[in-house]
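Appendix B, record 7
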Amino acid sequence: MTINTPSILYTALLGLLLIALSFNVVLARGRYRVRLGEGTDEGMRQAVRVQANFAEYVPLAAVLLILSELTGMPLVAVHVAGILLLTSRLLHAWGLAHSSGRTFGRFYGTAGTWLVIVGLSLWLLFATTGFSRSPG
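C-alpha cells (predicted):
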C-alpha cells in the first residue's frame, strides 16, 4: 500500500533537515570541545540555537500541515505550505548559522514559518468549526 500525500513528503524532508542540523551540533561539539550544553563559543551557541529553533517550531507546523490535508485542504495549497515551510526553515538555519544578528535568512525564515503556522491554523479553524458554515 502506498500513501502518496504532500504533507508526508514535506514532513519527511523536514525530518532529514532536523538530522542535518543535529549533526551540525555534534560536529560543533567536537570542534569547540563542548560535551554538554552550549559552552561559551559563539559558533557552538549558534549551532545549538539553529537546531533548537527548528525543534521549537517545526513539530507543530508539521502536525498542522498533516491535519490541514486530512481536513480537505486543496493539494496545491498543501504543497505551497509545505514548500514555504521547508524553504523558510532552510533560510532560517542558513541565516542564523552565519550571524546571530538580523539577517535576510533569519528574518524571512521566521516570517515564512509564522505565515505557514497562522495560515494552517486559520484553515483548520474555518474547516472544522461552525465558522465555515453558512447560517440557516
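Remarks on this record: Residues 6-128 form a domain with the Four Helix Bundle (Hemerythrin (Met), subunit A) fold (CATH 1.20.120.550). The helical segments are 6-32, 42-70, 75-98, 104-128.
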